[in-house]
Amino acid sequence: KEYKDKLNQLYRLIDDEKFDEAKEILSELTEKFGEHDTEIVRANMHLNLAEEDMNEIHQEG
């Protein structure tokens, strides 16, 4: 339950572009469940893509 709640919170933070807070939660989850956990790998990719998109938007503007 806590795992799922943390993941939901993580995705909300990414959607809100609060990347630093998202990284903290991802770091917590990684410590508990390991970096090879499927959901953690997916969340990591999601965060990286969101950050890249944000950087591209700021560079263009």
Could you characterize the architecture of this molecule?
This protein is mainly alpha-helical and about 60 residues long. It has one domain. About 85% of the residues lie in helices and about 0% in strands. Helix 1 runs antiparallel to helix 2 (about 20-35) and helix 2 runs antiparallel to helix 3. The longest helix has 23 residues, at about 40-60. The model has no long low-confidence stretch (mean pLDDT about 95).
Short note summarizing the structure:
The protein is mainly α. Helix content is 85%, strand content 0%. It has one domain.
Strand content: under 5%
End-to-end gap? 41 Å
Poorly predicted segments = none
The total number of structural domains is: 1
Write the element-wise H/E pattern from the N-terminal end onward: HHH
The pLDDT mean sits at 95
- Number of distinct helices: 3
Label the structural class: mainly alpha
Helix content: over 70%
Shape: elongated
Largest sheet: none
What's the count of strands? 0
- Rounded to an integer in angstroms, the radius of gyration calculated over CA atoms is 12 Å
